[in-house]
Amino acid sequence: MNVRVSQALPALEPSPRAATSARMRTLALGIVGPGRVGGALLEQLRASRERLKRTHRLDLQLRAVIDSRHMWLDCDDDALNGRHGGAQIWRPATLADLGPYLQQSHAHAVIVDCSASEEVVRHYADWFTAGIHVVTPNKLAESGPLERWHALRETASHSGAQWLYETTVGAGLPVIKTLRELIDTGDHLTSIEGMLSGTLAWLLDQFDGQRAFSDLVRDAIVAGYAEPDPRLDLGGMDVARKLVILAREAGLTLSLDDVEVESLVPAELADVDAETFMHKLAQLDAPMTRRLAQASARNGVLRYVARLSAEGHARVALEVVPRSHPLANARLTDNMVVFSTRRYCDNPLVVQGPGAGPEVTAAGVFADVLRVAQQVAA
Amino acid sequence: MNVRVSQALPALEPSPRAATSARMRTLALGIVGPGRVGGALLEQLRASRERLKRTHRLDLQLRAVIDSRHMWLDCDDDALNGRHGGAQIWRPATLADLGPYLQQSHAHAVIVDCSASEEVVRHYADWFTAGIHVVTPNKLAESGPLERWHALRETASHSGAQWLYETTVGAGLPVIKTLRELIDTGDHLTSIEGMLSGTLAWLLDQFDGQRAFSDLVRDAIVAGYAEPDPRLDLGGMDVARKLVILAREAGLTLSLDDVEVESLVPAELADVDAETFMHKLAQLDAPMTRRLAQASARNGVLRYVARLSAEGHARVALEVVPRSHPLANARLTDNMVVFSTRRYCDNPLVVQGPGAGPEVTAAGVFADVLRVAQQVAA
Questions:
Q1: What number of other Cβ atoms are within 10 A of residue B233's Cβ?
Q2: C-alpha to C-alpha distance for A199 and B316, rounded to whole angstroms
Q3: What would the DSSP string read from start to end of B309-320?
Q4: Closest Cα in chain A to B42
Q5: Catalytic-residue membership of B242
Q6: Which of A27, A290, B16, B249: CA 20 to 30 A from B225?
């Protein structure tokens, strides 16, 4: 059953059938979850496609897009080649069909998981077994159960499939690749400290006592900085997941349970439904105002800081940071990651910048796709 | 004529003759210029070799080391296999023999140019033509004559040879690869501003009027932060070269002549011999003290700043920077590079950290070697 729907996605460029030059590398791409990040990625891929053929001899062929209900396959649009924008043919989503379909082309296949879904993660093992590369900003597998993580690594390594997830921490900022290079070249981590949540960075940068903390949270939701249920950010679990990802990258086999997490959500609001939570949001104000007063009394600022030691102690918590400290200088939704190592001991290596947003996240995913392309043979 | 010399280099690990597993990748390495950076690299390679075989299935075989007078080839040490440290057999240096020797092993060959020599650069074309990869912190080719640079790029691209030079700017900091990913994924540069000289960063961070600028320069030489003839740093040409490299990476075909350079060396001292210069170093003090007073009057600090605009305007100069500006926060020998782009527009992407020193530079070179390994077939 093929359905033709007027598409809300960015228009997809049909794959060309023209023969590519002998030295052209081809990747067959499937994109799962064409939401804000996936949509931005589709735009970036389309805008860059001809340039990459010319300058990188690389042909990124978009062959499938799948969301939770629909699936677009380029074969369905054969009759429409040459069309710009407009309607596309969609069929019901079948995640299990995606890998085999991409592999029909005999090019290296890359699945870009832009979902935040456990259901998609459950397919990784099959994809890796088939040698399909996975690029993703989805944190669930990288920070999930240690046993599954080990098994997925092993499967990918065995089949030669790449698994790249730079954008799970700091979006487009060079965080994970920087850490990996330090480790790969034999450096030894002393500590990582950082601000890993754009949402919390923005809230704490804005929170100066003039306005209630709960009002700023509402502003953040409206501005798209925070999730509609802001507990995902305020509870610290998102930051804890990122710290687990960094820890594992550094060779420490940590799990989410090992991270000491200070939640900004009062215990009695942790399990209520979202509507009730938003209704009682003002309960955050008194404790946050008290914390701000403590920070001011010490001439510091409040920051939500993630810390990892070489011994594997991991903690995410609200801290008072001196005004002269680099973490106090982060502005707006800036993320900041401070690597101290045996080689970077006098001064740390610091990466700073916007660590969230569809465009920069999509660009980081795109860069991972390009890295897959560099690492597979022509 | 073989000579046996007691070696001042770190002891070189002999290449194993044992068969490697089927899936092991091998790179044959030749290192040119085993000075401070080259020496640190040899240490790092040796310390990482067994680990990389195990974790990366990568065998980095050191096959040759060459300085301006001597050359060590692993074949000469055949009889010495199993020896640890101690004497090694050296023969007179013949740079032209290096490429053919490395290629005898039928592995991918990588020449690491840790020299600062034009003579070595003159061999790049032959190496690229032969498909030999070059990894280097040597700025002379990347910032040299535009025509030669174009020709070398073309030759390398044609033969599939990699040419990696991350450490020419910011040593081990992820600067060039970050810029390249921004461009490759279709972002557009608005500006780059940065502090690209660890020497000048240190001098200007220390210079608070308590001690004469010339005294600090002498300290910097003793500490190894500045060259014995500090005009290489103070004249700004080293920073200008780095800015040319960044500009070319961003697609702007700039040459050194196109960079507006403010030298901190008085014109009458620009061409005297090094001894005379050091004798008259105090002539720097009056103008620098005047500049410091101007900065203080404006409640700012002095920084030597490199700036590049999207239109290709390039300038390196002493500037007064407000104390609240990120560039004012750099400490010790910190480099800092601030990328503003179409996507990183509200807040820039910032990389900061020590941008000089043998260990971090060697680690950056090492990371480039690992990138070559990832990008060549098994």
A1: 25
A2: 36
A3: ETT--EEEEEEE
A4: A185
A5: yes
A6: B249
pLDDT at residue A377 in the model = 60
Query: B157: how many CB neighbours lie within 10 A of its CB?
Result: 14
CA-nearest residue to A162 within chain B is B374
DSSP secondary structure of A290-344: HHHHHHHHTTEEEEEEEEEETT--EEEEEEEEETTSGGGG--TTEEEEEEEESSS
CA B301, distance to chain mean position in Å, is: 27
- Nearest chain B residue (CA) to A366: B185
More confident site: A357 or A234:
A234
Q: How confident is the model at residue B332 (pLDDT cuts 50, 70, 90)?
A: confident
pLDDT band at B227 (very low <50, low <70, confident <90, very high): confident
CA distances (Å), origin B293, targets A281, B288, B317: 52, 9, 17
**Which member of B344, B366, B370 has the closest CB to residue A354?**
B344
CB A322 within 8 A of CB B323: no
Residue A321 has pLDDT above 60, yes or no: yes
**A279-310: buried (b, 16+ CB within 10 Å) or exposed (e) per residue?**
eebeebbeebeebbeebeeeebbbbbbbbbbb
β-pair partners for B306: B194, B316
Identity of residue A35:
G
| Sequence-separated (6 or more) residues with CB below 8 Å from residue A279 | none
Helices B358-375, A358-375: crossing angle, 10 deg rounding? 70
The pLDDT score that the predictor gives to residue A225 is 81
Q: How confident is the model at residue A14 (pLDDT cuts 50, 70, 90)?
A: very low
CA nearest A119: which of A171, A157, A66, A160?
A: A66
Decide if A173 touches B, using CB distance below 8 A: yes
What was the pLDDT predicted at A215? Answer: 97
CA gap B12, A147 in Å, rounded: 40
Taking contacts as CB-CB distances below 8 angstroms, the residues of chain A near B349 are 172-173, 352-354
* pTM for this predicted structure: 0.91
| Chain A residues 38-57 within an 8 A CB cutoff of chain B | 44, 47-48, 51-52, 56
**pLDDT at residue number B103:** 93
Task: Report B:311-350 residues touching A (Cβ under 8 A).
Answer: 326, 329, 331-334, 343-344, 346-350
B183 in contact with chain A, both atoms CB, cutoff 8 A: no
Query: Where are any strands of DSSP class E within B95-203?
Result: 108-113, 133-135, 163-164, 189-195
ipTM score of the complex?
A: 0.90
Which candidate in B184, B188, B341 is best for mutational testing of the A interface (most A CBs within 10 A)? B184
The reported pLDDT for the residue numbered A114 is 97
